[in-house]
Specification:
2 copies of one chain form a homodimer. By secondary structure, chain A is α+β, with helices and mostly antiparallel strands. Chain A folds into 2 domains: 14-271, L-amino peptidase D-ALA esterase/amidase; 279-396, ArgJ beta chain, C-terminal domain (Ubiquitin-like (UB roll)). Helices cover 31% and strands 27% of the residues of chain A. Chain A is built from 10 helices and 15 strands. In chain A, strands 1, 2, 3, 4, 5, 6, 7 and 9 form an 8-stranded mixed sheet that branches. Chain A has a 7-stranded mixed sheet with strand order 8-15-10-14-11-12-13. The first copy, chain A, is globular. Chains A and B meet through helix 8, helix 9, strand 13 and helix 10 of A and helix 8, helix 9, strand 13 and helix 10 of B.
Chain lengths: 400, 400
C-alpha cells in the first residue's frame, strides 16, 4: 500500500511541486514546495534532540511568533545541521528566496531539510532552483513532493482522509519520509500535512500533538534520534466550516481522522525502514499502567537481537523475554504470555510449544508480537521493522 | 592479543578442565570446570535483568548464604533461562553431581550457563559428562576452560596478572566469554576469576564491584541485556599473605590489578563482538559530572548509525553530534570538539576539516572517538565495536 488512493490526491487551496536542484549527486528530485493559496494556521512538532538543525530552529521561531504560513520549502540530500551561523543564514535565505518568488512575506515560509549532517547547504543551487519550483506548482503535485523529500526511502508515503462536517466534506492529506534514524521520538522523519478544514490554532496544536504521540512517537527503526525531525500541519480553512474548537464533537472527529493519517504514514515508514523486510507491531497488554506497557513495547522494538531474529524468521522468544526483563518495568516472570500473530509461544513464563513451528509463521510481511504481562489492564503499541544486513550496508556508506 | 602470556597460565591451588558433553550440536567443548583445592572465598556480580537464568539464582543464593566455594561448573550451548522450576532443579542437579564427583558439599559448587534461552537443559548429558570433567582437571587447563565457555566468540579470552606483596608473588587470572547481548550492564558475558591471594570477604567484594564497574559495565556490543551475566571470583588464599583488608595499601594494589584483568578481558570481548571488525573506545572529556560523561559515551556506543559508519570507514561525525544531542545530558553545541584518533573532526560544534580525510584514519583496527564537551573536567570511557552485516547474519540464525 503505497498510497490509499489510486486517483490523484488534491486538497482545496494547496499546490505542490518538486524539482531536482542538484543537491543529490544522483540527480533525483531534491527540492519540494508546498503552497497554500490562503494564509493557513501552522502548527508543528519537532525533534527533542538538543542539537537541532538550522531549519528546525527557524520553524520553531516562526510558530512561536505567529503560527501562520503559506509555504513550506523542503530539501533532501543535506540536513543543514551542525552548520553553525552559516546554516541559520542559509535556512533563512531559503525562506526569503521562496517568499520572493511567491510574492509573499518571508515569515510565512517554513523550511525543512533532511540528509547528511555537517555539510554546508549548497544554497546557491537551491536559490537558483526555487523560481522553477514555484513555476511548477500544481494542485495535483503531491506525489512529486512526496518523492522529492525521500532519502533512503524506497517508496513515497502519502495518506489522505476525507471527513464530513454537515454537508461539507474536508480533506486531510499528509506526506512523510522516514527510513533510518527513527527513535525514540521522531527521528529523521519529516511529515507535512495539509487540510482545508477550518480549525482554531489551539485545537490544531492539540490534535496534532495527540496524533503524533500515538503514531510517529511510537515508531522505532533504529536507536538514533535525528536533529531534523519535523511534523508540520497547515490548515487553510478554505472549507469554510465553522472553525473547530478544542474538545467539541467535531474536534474529536478531526483528531481521529488526523490520527488515522499519521498512524498510516507511520506504518509506511516502519514498512520502509532501512533494509527492512517486515513491518512489526509490538502490542503489550495486561500492564499496570500505559507507561509500563509503552516502556516494554519500546524496549522490544529497540532490541537488535529480537529484530535480527525476526529477520531470520527465527522464533527466538527468549530474546523477547530478556528484553521484557531489562525494560525497567516491574514484572512477574511467571505471568508472562507471548503470542506471535495467533500462535502462543510463551505461557506463564516458559515455552508453550514443543512441536516445530508452522513454517509460514515468520515468513509473513507483517508480524504482531503480543505480550500479556498479566498484571493489569493497560496496553500500548509500538511500530518497528526487522534489522537486516541491508540496514548495515545502507548506513555503512551513507555519505552522499 | 589473545592472551598476555605465551606460557601456560597457572594459579596455585586451582585446576581446570573442559570437555564436550554433547550440548552443542557442533560437538565443540561445552562443559568447563574450575576447581580450587582449598575452600575459597567466592564473590559475584550478576545481571540486573529482572528475568534471571536459573544458575544465576542459584549462585546469588549461595553467595548470600555463605560466600564460600570450591568449584564452578559451566555449560555453553544452553542458557537454562525461562525454564521455570525444572530449570532451577537442573541447575541444582548440575551442582549436586559435580560435588559428588569431586567429593565435596553441593553448596560449594557454583553453576553457570550460556546459550539459547528457553530450552530445557539437557541435564542427562551433563550428568553423564561431569565425572569425565573431574577426571580431566589440570592446573594447566585454563585455556581449555576458556574455550569451552565460548558461544559465538571467535577466540578464548584469558588475562592474568601477577602482583607482589613483600616477598610473595600472587596471581589473578580470569577467563571470559562475550560476543553478543552485551549491554548496558553485563550481558551474556561470563567471567571467572581465580586468585591465590588471601583477601577478606568484604575487600574481595568491594574490589570486584569496583573492577566490574569500570570494565564490563562500560562495555556495549548491542543494546540487549542477558539473563545470564555472571562474574565470579574465587580467592583461595594459598599465597598465605596477610589477608588483604578494605582500604589498605595492599587493597589498592589488589584492586588495580583486578581492574587490569577485567578491563583487558572487556577489551577482548569488544574486539570479539559479534561480527566486529574494530575495537572502539569512546572517551568523553570536559563533562560537568562523570555520570554526564558516561551517559554521552554510552549513547554514542549504542548508536547503530555511528557503529555502522565506523564499519563503513565513513567519518560521519554528524551521527556522533546527533547522539550527543539525544543523550539526555545538558550540552552546548558550540563548545563540542570531536577527535577520531588524533584528527580533529569537529571544532566548536561545526566541521573542522575541509580536505579529504587521511585514507587510513578509519581503516585501523582500533578507533578512539574523543569528545570534549567543553563544560567541565570530568570524563568517562566506554568500550564497543562496529556493527556489521556479520552481526545480523550471526543473530538472524542463532538457534543452535
Amino acid at each position: 500500500m503505497k498510497s490509499t488512493n489510486k486517483t490523484t490526491i488534491t486538497v482545496p487551496g494547496f499546490k505542490f511541486s518538486a524539482i531536482s536542484a542538484g543537491i543529490k549527486k544522483s540527480g533525483l528530485k531534491d527540492l519540494a514546495l508546498i503552497f497554500s493559496e490562503d494564509k493557513a494556521i501552522v502548527k508543528g512538532v519537532f525533534t527533542s534532540n538538543k542539537i537541532k538543525a538550522a531549519p528546525v530552529k527557524v520553524d520553531i521561531e516562526r510558530i512561536r511568533k505567529r503560527g501562520k504560513g503559506q509555504a513550506i520549502i523542503i530539501n533532501s540530500g543535506n540536513a543543514n545541521a551542525c552548520t553553525g551561523l552559516r546554516g541559520l543564514k542559509d535556512a533563512k535565505d531559503m525562506a526569503i528566496n521562496t517568499a520572493k518568488s511567491l510574492g509573499i512575506l518571508a515569515e510565512l515560509v517554513y523550511v525543512s531539510s533532511t540528509g547528511l549532517i555537517g555539510r554546508p547547504l549548497p544554497i546557491q543551487k537551491i536559490k537558483k532552483a526555487i523560481p522553477d519550483a514555484v513555476k511548477k506548482l500544481s494542485s495535483r503535485g503531491i506525489k512529486n513532493a512526496a518523492s522529492a523529500i525521500m532519502t533512503t526511502d524506497t517508496f513515497e508515503k502519502i495518506y489522505s482522509k476525507k471527513i464530513r462536517f454537515g454537508n461539507k466534506q474536508g480533506t486531510i492529506a499528509g506526506i512523510a519520509k522516514g527510513a533510518g534514524m527513527i527513535s525514540p521520538h521522531m527521528a529523521t522523519m519529516l511529515c507535512f500535512i495539509v487540510t482545508d478544514i477550518s480549525v482554531t490554532p489551539g485545537a490544531l496544536d492539540s490534535a496534532l500533538r495527540q496524533a503524533v504521540n500515538k503514531s510517529f512517537n511510537r515508531l522505532v527503526i533504529d536507536n538514533d534520534m535525528s536533529t531534523n525531525d519535523t511534523v508540520l500541519i497547515m490548515a487553510n480553512g478554505i472549507l469554510k466550516n465553522s472553525p473547530i474548537k478544542k474538545n467539541s464533537l467535531p474536534y474529536y472527529k478531526f483528531e481521529a481522522a488526523l490520527s488515522e493519517v499519521t498512524y498510516n504514514l507511520s506504518k509506511m515508514i516502519a514498512r520502509d525502514g532501512e533494509g527492512a523486510t517486515k513491518l512489526i507491531e509490538v502490542i503489550v497488554k495486561g500492564a499496570r499502567t500505559e507507561s509500563d506497557a509503552e516502556k516494554v513495547a519500546r524496549t522490544i522494538a529497540h532490541s537488535m537481537l529480537v529484530k535480527t531474529a525476526l529477520y531470520g524468521q527465527s522464533p527466538n522468544w527468549g530474546r523477547i523475554m530478556a528484553a521484557i526483563g531489562y525494560s525497567g518495568v516491574k514484572i512477574n516472570e511467571q505471568k508472562i504470555n507471548i503470542h506471535i500473530n495467533k500462535l502462543e509461544l510463551v505461557n506463564k513464563g516458559i515455552g508453550a510449544y514443543t512441536n516445530r513451528l508452522p513454517g509460514n509463521l515468520l515468513s509473513k510481511k507483517e508480524i504482531a508480537i503480543i505480550i500479556d504481562l498479566g498484571l493489569g489492564k493497560k496496553e500500548a503499541r509500538v511500530l518497528t521493522c526487522d534489522l537486516t544486513e541491508k540496514y548495515i550496508r545502507i548506513n555503512a556508506c551513507y555519505m552522499t
